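Two quick folds needed for the group meeting slides. Do the first one here.
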Amino acid sequence: MNWNKNWKKSGKPTKKRKYARNAPEHVTRKLMSAHLSKPLAQKHGTRSFPPRKGDKIKIMIGDFKGTTGKIEKVLYKKRKVLIDKIKISKKDGTKTSRPIDPSNLMIIELNLEDKKRSRAIERRKK
């Protein structure tokens, strides 16, 4: 099955949700993009980019709206992101990180320590 072409063929939301749910991991990573802040978007020439551990983000939607922090972990199978400052208390009193959807985030600062990521940004510019 050609994953890239089938995403755009159907306009039905149910089929798009089914596609996203059953997509392989390399496609899921692209579907998990988060918006870039305006200065970053202008600098890198792209509107969104997949989040990665170490990126500084701001939460735009939800209970923690306006909170900034660093990405602690990216859960590709669940399509969620864990942020260091976002903790909730469980019934037994322990604190745990709350998974947040990357579509509700804005990347303020990219972690460019990895050469592969720098190359990916350069590819997007072209």
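Then this one, please, same format:
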Amino acid sequence: MHREGTFAQLMSYLKAAIGTFPDIRSGDNCVYSIKDAALSAFSVFFMQSPSFLSHQKMMEQERGNNNVRTLFGSHNIPTDNSIRTLLDPVSPEYCYSVFSNIHDQLLSQEIKEKYRSINDTYLIALDGTWFHSSDNIHCEECSFKDHNDGRRTWYHHAITPVLVHPQSSHVLSVEPEFIIPQDGSEKQDCEINAAKRWLKGNGYKYSEMGVTLLGDDIYARNPFCTEARENGFHFLLTCKKTSHKALYQWVEDGEEGKDLFTMARKVWNGKERKTHIYRYFNDVPLRDTEDSMKVNWCELEIQNQSGKTTGRFAYVTDHDISAENVMEIVKAGRSRWKIENEHNKTLKTNGYNLEHNFGHGKKHLANLLVTLNILSFLFHTVLELYDASYRLLRKTVGARKIFFNDIRALTRYMVFKHWTDLMVFMLKGLDLPIPGG
């Protein structure tokens, strides 16, 4: 990427976006800048340490310098309350150019071909997730849920799209779409309405590069599929029998070899030989109405050596299905799970603490902070893909938790002038070769 290193390039994108953040303050009471507040907040997520700023303030007092300044570019470290106050008026959309710049850079390099899938399209998985809840703290962008015991839980949630590929463990975060109270009272309605808004808004630019949308069963409905096609997207969505009775009646009534086609493959999973049975049916109504969209349906049934069914996965898509591509389509459909396992679960449990209340505010703060958190995850992913030193250290150290524990310990006691200096120090400490040097 950048001649000064991947980290420097990523930070240049972030600093450019922060330069557009609005500052609604008036007068001379401006001790801290918006830039200092945003970069300091981002450093907490990137370093996966809520106490990172306090440690760096102590280092500044003792040594006259700190890693928030040298690594992230914040001139001064604001207080936590100052950060929350300064950032609360800033909509998360001011950060979205960072996602675009990273994707443009990535998809112009070798990763462009690695992430291509069915019919030369990219796969973007959609799913909704909670990231803040409270029984008393809330803001104008909170949704709420009333309980039988009279309690009301306030919460934030969002669609967190990701670029995925069946053969890659790396998922690439896309701009989130925040679910707002006006989107409806039912979870499904909220999520679907937000997803439709994403199709026409932040997600529209992705349709131009050829994208197949992945989603669970609540997306496999005529209105969403119609809007996806109208906005230039393909779709490959989970399809449950219980919620698509009319479609499955067509499947059951289909004539084998004419409408319905079946093929079986023996698969060795390292422990036992299983049978994968694929079935597909093209041009079937998605619902029992005259104006129903016609879709193509496929299913994978997995049987163990005793013939017992151990798994069943079914999908509807606008891609034509044949004996030549049904296995590839099913693999692509099953990669939808990566948005939960490699993305949302990682953000909640692997150091990012997505559900932690870092600061709620009265307007945009909660949504802005979760956007910076998602960006930190995207930065880490890009570093693992393109920074040879970072990749070697992550592979050698192993667990993400240990790796960041090491980084936090080093930056607590030492000031590093550049990110590359920190990487080189760690490589030398582990007697590892320095890539490119």
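Slide caption for protein two: The mean pLDDT is 90.
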